[in-house]
Amino acid sequence: MTETLWRCDQVRAGQLYNRMMFDTKAEAEQFMQRMQQMEPDQVISIEAIEAQDVWN
């Protein structure tokens, strides 16, 4: 497992709609691009987080 995970949050109308975790930034960016094409009304953000903050 990598030490850094990439969290991708999808927000619609100010509410968290979906949260996905990815091993690489490239995977998160690809997901973000696909979602923006399919649902342009969503705000999508990518954030690097430490794996230890997610998994015990």
- Please estimate the helix content: 25-40%
Tertiary shape: flat
| Proportion of strand residues | 35-45%
> H/E series, N to C?
EEHE
**Please, what is the average pLDDT?**
88
Which oligomeric form is depicted? single chain
- State Rg: 12 Å
Query: Distance N terminus to C terminus?
Result: 13 Å
Strand line-up in the sheet with most strands:
2-1-3
Number of helices: 1
Largest sheet: 3 strands, antiparallel
Structural class: alpha+beta
**How many beta-strand runs?**
3
Q: List the uncertain runs.
A: none
Short description:
This protein has 56 residues and is α+β, with helices and mostly antiparallel strands.
Question: Could you explain the architecture of this structure?
Answer:
The protein is of the alpha+beta class and 56 residues long. It has one helix and three strands, in the order ββαβ. 11% of the residues are buried. A three-stranded antiparallel beta sheet has the order 2-1-3, covered by helices on one side.
Task: Please give the structural blueprint.
Blueprint lengths: L3 E9 L2 E8 L2 H14 L4 E8 L6
Antiparallel strand pairs: 1-2, 1-3
List keywords for this structure.
alpha+beta; 45% strand; three-stranded antiparallel β-sheet; single chain; 1 helix; flat
